[in-house]
Automatic annotation (TrEMBL):
It comes from Celerinatantimonas diazotrophica. Residues 33-354 form the Acyl-protein synthetase LuxE domain. This is Phenylacetate-coenzyme A ligase PaaK-like adenylate-forming protein. InterPro entries: ANL_N_sf, LuxE. One of its GO terms (molecular function) is long-chain fatty acid--protein ligase activity. It comes from the Bacteria. Gene3D superfamilies: N-terminal domain of ligase-like. Keywords: Ligase. GO terms for biological process: bioluminescence.
Length: 355
């Protein structure tokens, strides 16, 4: 599908929302048509909803409830084209299945690299992952949590895994990493809860600061567990500065169902939509599109979902559209904030699976 080319050529956060939406909409309509032809379940859903495959704006694109990926195997490829299947873990036992072919997996990696490079530069940095070593992770299977870490581990070099088999900080490994990279940029990645519980808290308890002043810290996964502990994002960032030594902290939001097209928070704490994806906020009661400033369910769009009809998904997360093109950080396009899980929705966050 040719629409992808114009997205690759465009700047990640450089287009005004109207220009960006026009480009992305053309790709999304192309995907709707593709999936209608290649996925019988999707064609049936389109028909029963009387939804268009030539939408004039985002609100006209049929949103699939994220729950649907747990109930139905949604695929637009033949069985022999399946390259890998990503399962997103759930506490209830039901799991989303995301079917990828080589093309879609490649689109995901390429988009993720482009997005991340715009935040950390093109050089691969030494990377500390707040995870158990890859050998331990492999034993427990290819989960969404693992896939998330693996997706980003590609951005770094000299990977160090900060946690031991008991999920405790592996101090010799951490100290060796700090000693080797004290005065240079490094990348630290962890799921929000794991970074808090297994690195920041132990460091606080010991009153130690790692002194990694040039660290770029990325974390993802819900705030749900931290809200129970009454930790705000501001507190989280302050503790990163106090215990790691850097206030360069980026949260990112993304779904296993739309791997690759992630939303990264800027210096203002606002999540920005990259060229490959966008959002719309919908009223949870009647699904009407919400204006700027009105909380609602987040609908996510991704240009990358080619092997399965996941280009327009209604999440169970509540969010707030903050604005278009005018974030003080200078990035163009839409920016927003995640407020948390819809109260009655099932708990299903990636990092929530480790408890
Ligand atoms: Zn911003």
């Amino acid at each position: 599908m040719s629409q992808m080319e114009s997205l690759w050529d465009a700047p990640i956060y450089g287009l005004n929302q109207s220009d960006k939406a026009e480009l992305l909409l053309s790709r999304l309509n192309g995907l709707s048509q593709w999936h209608r032809e290649h996925c019988q379940s999707y064609a049936t859903l389109l028909e029963s909803a009387h939804a268009s495959v030539a939408a004039n704006d985002y609100s006209e694109i049929l949103p699939l409830a994220v729950q649907l990926f747990k109930q139905v195997r949604l695929s637009s490829i033949t069985d022999d084209e399946v390259f890998k299947t990503i399962t997103s873990s759930g506490t209830s036992g039901s799991k989303s299945q995301i079917i990828l072919d080589r093309t879609t997996a490649a689109l995901q990696s390429k988009a993720l690299v482009k997005i991340m490079q715009s935040w950390v530069g093109r050089d691969r940095l030494p990377m500390l992952l707040i995870e158990q070593s890859n050998l331990i992770a492999q034993r427990s299977g290819f989960s969404a949590r693992g896939a998330g870490a693996l997706g980003l581990s590609f951005m770094g070099r000299e990977h160090c895994y900060a946690l031991d088999e008991q999920m405790q900080p592996n101090w010799p490994v951490i100290k060796a990493f700090v000693a080797a990279h004290q005065n240079q940029p490094v990348l630290i990645f962890g799921f929000t809860f794991m970074l808090w519980e297994y690195l920041l808290k132990p460091l606080m308890q010991q009153g130690v600061c790692l002194g990694l002043e040039q660290a770029i810290i990325f974390h993802s996964g819900g705030w749900k567990k931290l809200e129970h502990l009454s930790v705000s994002s501001e507190q989280f960032n302050r503790h990163c500065e106090a215990s790691i030594g850097s206030s360069c902290v980026h949260n990112f939001y993304g779904m296993a169902e739309q791997t690759g097209s992630i939303f990264v928070s800027c210096e203002q704490g606002h999540l920005h939509c990259p060229i490959f994806s966008d959002i719309l906020i919908r009223d949870p009661m009647n699904l009407a599109p919400c204006p700027i400033g009105k909380p609602g369910l987040i609908q996510v769009f991704s240009a990358l979902a080619q092997s399965y009809p996941g280009h327009s998904i209604l999440t169970e997360d509540m969010g707030l559209w903050l604005g278009d093109d005018d974030c003080p950080c200078g990035r163009k396009g839409r920016y927003f904030k995640v407020l948390g899980r819809e109260p009655k929705a099932e708990v299903r966050g990636c990092s929530d699976t480790f408890s």
